């Protein structure tokens, strides 16, 4: 395999469903071409950044490297259409707007704000482990359990009715799974945009309701936020909702399911965790590193610069490969080993810098609560079929994880 062949993993959704192929390719790129120009007829050119330190350096400098206009990799028409879409979420914003809008919900996601949710999260963790017990010893761990648990947490935070949760799950899977024929909206060539439009129509109703009947949930905080003295625009509020409602649960579900898959592939680590529940926090962080649910974000240079000796011109874009950075041999000892006690764990699965994931503390609390409840109650567990991963270019993890188990 040469660098040109290896770099095809970034433009092929199937590569992210094939861990062996993806990690072999990115290991080669880190070794031979850590800053590599990818040219593909379907996509505008970009530089693939595969080393941990380069991802960190670029993420730190939000002035030199901006999110707009190319937030994530997409085909050429998508790059062009972004200019015409009046909707922006935090991931599309740069300073001075980004810190102002981020502040709206920041207190809800800080450690103190998240700790207030501990009782509710632990209640939901028990509820879904009880549901696992009720399924009778065989199920799809992703479909039946962990695709729902973080969804219930984030929807409760937003104050949305439980009867709407299945709709939110389906729309999220259609949005992030637009490149996967099992998940994409059938018969719709613009599946991604169609799912996004449905999201916005739903949240426009929520905005109107929260403005007319404000409550004490995060949904009301967003709908009634003031930006420079003016009520937040409807499009910006809707973008805020979509970001929290999708990224707020889908990434955590991927880490929970991918983490279970890793434990089943590494039974020594399962035994280690079962014998010492104090390892749950480091184990979940290792699951996040291992899965890296957010596959990439992009940044665009505002002026001519150099990355690892490679000149990059103003206006050119880089793709930050988080899964590759999280297997960097220069940063992680035995990076291809799954280690529930890994410490320190300098993974960048939550990003870094100004756009560091808002929900980091919430995701950790959710993951730790579920595994702290689950592990002591499992007497045995094994795969009951072949796991399958989502074909994606952006966010994803397992889409099927069949298991067989016995519980106390």
Automatic annotation (TrEMBL):
Family: Belongs to the cytochrome P450 family.
InterPro entries in the record: Cyt_P450, Cyt_P450_B, Cyt_P450_CS, Cyt_P450_sf
Keywords: Heme, Iron, Metal-binding, Monooxygenase, Oxidoreductase
Keyword Oxidoreductase among record annotations: yes
PANTHER family: BIOTIN BIOSYNTHESIS CYTOCHROME P450, P450, PUTATIVE (EUROFUNG)-RELATED
Keyword presence, Iron: yes
GO biological process terms on file: cholesterol catabolic process
Top-level taxonomy: Bacteria, Bacillati, Actinomycetota, Actinomycetes, Frankiales
GO molecular function (one): steroid hydroxylase activity
The protein, known as: Cytochrome P450
A Pfam family annotated for this UniProt entry: p450
CDD domains: CYP142-like
